[in-house]
């Protein structure tokens, strides 16, 4: 499937994989029709260029080959953690630097036969920064469109892009995979409800065209142990507790605990999203006419279909297609 071809109707899946783990990912399993693989991420420099020296080019080529065989899409993410995206604070205010960054992103996508780009400005929350960020996204989409390339943004619940930013992007990847209650429960369905409803209600009066169909909320493929939470002041009360404790990949959780489908944790220990909860989240995305779900991250899933969380989501996706349903 060539870059820019339309996605299938119905629920879609976006799956992130950190670049340092991309070489270990089975691309032909990860990249399929209805699934977008996002390689995270290329640092942005203060001069409006991208640092590509650590990019696993072999993994990129393998992902593109998998797309040609199986369908699906392949994105690259730019920005990310503070050290990868901090340059945006000054860059977004300079029209010349914005144009250079936009040009570099478009060139990178076209040169590597990618389908789009995901932008992640970690922890940006100042109103003036968010305004200029929205301008950058709008300018970027304008240059991506003639090439048939898509634009997504990785968004925290307290980051307000406004009408300009939200209408510029094709997908809003809402981070709902990294919150934990003080008693231990990790990224519950209720948390997803709260995050999505907050984003939608915040933008009701702005009348953002097609907002619901752009939202893919995050599902964790990792667990967190039960430790003391810390108050997230930036969330402004949307979700009062986050968690800074030990992380364990779902594949390791399966090996250690052999959980049943309905199990989401162990008392006074590790908490995760089990198969039943992941299915409920995917089904809720369909019920709410959302764009689908987003996964962090694909490398943390199991390699067996019988225990894979990605396969659980694809079963929901497949059941929709089998009945002709559309969100």
Report what the structure shows:
The structure is a single chain. The protein is an alpha/beta fold. The chain contains twelve helices and 13 strands. The strands form three sheets. Strands 1-2-3-4-5-6-7-13 form an eight-stranded parallel β-barrel, surrounded by five helices.
Helix content: 25-40%
Instruction: Give the overall shape.
Output: globular
Radius of gyration: 19 Å
Oligomer: single chain
Taking the alpha carbons of the first and last residues, their distance comes to 23 Å
Instruction: Describe the main β-sheet briefly.
Output: 8 strands, parallel, barrel
Give the strand line-up of the largest sheet.
Answer: 1-2-3-4-5-6-7-13
Secondary structure layout plus pairing:
Elements: E1 12-18, H1 27-30, E2 35-42, H2 57-70, E3 73-80, H3 82-85, H4 88-91, H5 95-111, E4 116-121, H6 127-144, E5 150-155, H7 162-168, E6 171-174, H8 189-202, H9 211-214, E7 215-220, E8 222-225, E9 230-231, E10 241-242, E11 247-249, H10 250-257, E12 270-271, H11 275-287, E13 292-296, H12 309-323
Parallel strand pairs: 1-2, 1-13, 2-3, 3-4, 4-5, 5-6, 6-7, 7-13
Antiparallel strand pairs: 8-11, 8-12, 9-10
Helix pairs in contact: 5-6, 6-7, 11-12
């Amino acid at each position: 499937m060539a870059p820019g071809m339309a996605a299938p109707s119905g629920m879609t899946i976006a799956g992130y994989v950190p670049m340092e783990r991309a070489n270990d990912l089975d691309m032909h399993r990860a990249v399929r029709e209805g699934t977008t693989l996002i390689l995270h991420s290329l640092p942005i420099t203060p001069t409006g260029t991208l640092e590509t020296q650590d990019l696993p080019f072999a993994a990129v080529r393998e992902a593109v080959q998998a797309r040609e065989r199986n369908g699906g899409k392949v994105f690259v993410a730019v920005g990310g953690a503070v050290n990868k995206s901090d340059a945006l604070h000054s860059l977004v205010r300079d029209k010349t630097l914005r144009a250079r960054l936009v040009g570099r992103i478009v060139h990178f996508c076209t040169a590597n036969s990618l389908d789009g780009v995901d932008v992640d400005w970690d922890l940006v929350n100042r109103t003036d920064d968010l305004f200029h960020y929205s301008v950058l996204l709008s300018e970027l989409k304008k240059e991506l469109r003639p090439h048939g390339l898509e634009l997504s943004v990785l968004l925290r619940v307290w980051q307000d892009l406004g009408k300009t930013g939200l209408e510029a992007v094709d997908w809003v990847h809402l981070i709902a995979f990294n919150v934990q209650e003080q008693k231990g429960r990790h990224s519950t369905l209720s948390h997803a409800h709260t995050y999505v409803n907050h984003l939608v209600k915040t933008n009701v009066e702005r009348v953002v065209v097609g907002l619901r169909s752009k939202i893919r909320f995050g599902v964790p493929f990792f667990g967190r142990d039960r430790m003391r939470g810390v108050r997230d002041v930036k969330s402004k009360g949307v979700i009062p507790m986050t968690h800074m404790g030990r992380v364990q990949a779902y594949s390791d959780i399966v090996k250690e605990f052999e959980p049943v489908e309905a199990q989401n944790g162990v008392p006074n220990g590790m908490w995760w999203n089990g198969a039943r909860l992941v299915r409920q989240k995917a089904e809720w995305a369909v019920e709410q006419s959302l764009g689908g779900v987003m996964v962090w991250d694909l490398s943390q899933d199991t390699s067996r279909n019988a225990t894979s969380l990605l396969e659980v989501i694809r079963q929901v996706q497949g059941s929709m297609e089998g009945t002709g349903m559309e969100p």
